Amino acid sequence: MYLLYTIAASLISFLFLKWLKRRRFCMDLKRLDGKTVLITGGNAGVGKETAIALAIRGARVIIACRDTERSEKAVREIKRTSHNVNVIQMELDLANLRAIREFCKTFLQREKRLDILINNAGMPSVLDWTDDSFSMCFGVNHLGHFLLTNLLLGRLKESAPSRVITLTCSAYKYQKLDFQDLNYNLFPFFTYCRSKLANIYFTQELARMMEGKGVTAYSVHPGYMQSNWTCHYSILFRVVMQAIMFMFFVTCEVGAQTVVYCAVADEVVPHSGGYFLDCRHAALRPFAKDSGVAKKLWEASERLVKLI
Predict the structure, then answer these.
(1) Keywords, A to Z (predicted)?
(2) Catalytic site positions
(3) If pLDDT is split at 50, 70 and 90, which confidence band does 251 have?
(4) Domain spans of the chain, in order of start
């Protein structure tokens, strides 16, 4: 009898955990024929699932990644799954500002439209540095996408109405920005949190600057997902995290739903600059809605990437 109770309790606990992992799905099946979508880091995880979902809707999908071999494999899989042959890859290293400029130059020469830019690629909390001596998290997660978006902004305006979607994380709430040390890299997790907060401020200021110009912007927390982000860590850490992710984290397909929602749904347009999760507009902590900080970060970022 004790064994039966144990099995029943385990089953109930497992089903409860599965219930906790339920997330909303994007039910908007709007077609994107004739639209061009650029997704950074679209060769794996939530980026790849987003690419599949938008390719199914008929978009021309470009995945921009550093690893060409993995990208080519992902393109084949996306084409096969979506039955859309209009999917390509381009090489992009977000940890190198010169490489970003070269990428944008090539993109603008090849592509006449850019309807949806999805700043998806990101680095977890690792103690490392970019080629330009920025902390890896801040350099890739914020500065790399900041420069990329600015260099492609003209094409986005020409293709209006267009959208910029930047992936962030609810971990933003654990840190605030220090303008005396934006390149902070002492505790990797704190650096990650700050980079995700920077994504939110970036989205807000971009939305303010593009008001009335046909470009809207959204920051998205896709949820905590069963992705390959643990590849940057030790084997022991990966094993432990795989077990935790199986129990508590959502699949990348589910995580992509809010990104897809912000890419296609009409009801998000009035919420440009907003923060989204579970396919809905969500509230932010008060300090993350400071327009003065958002403007200050934008100006500091312009200097750091030498846009001014």
Answers:
(1) Oxidoreductase
(2) 192
(3) confident
(4) 23-223+256-304
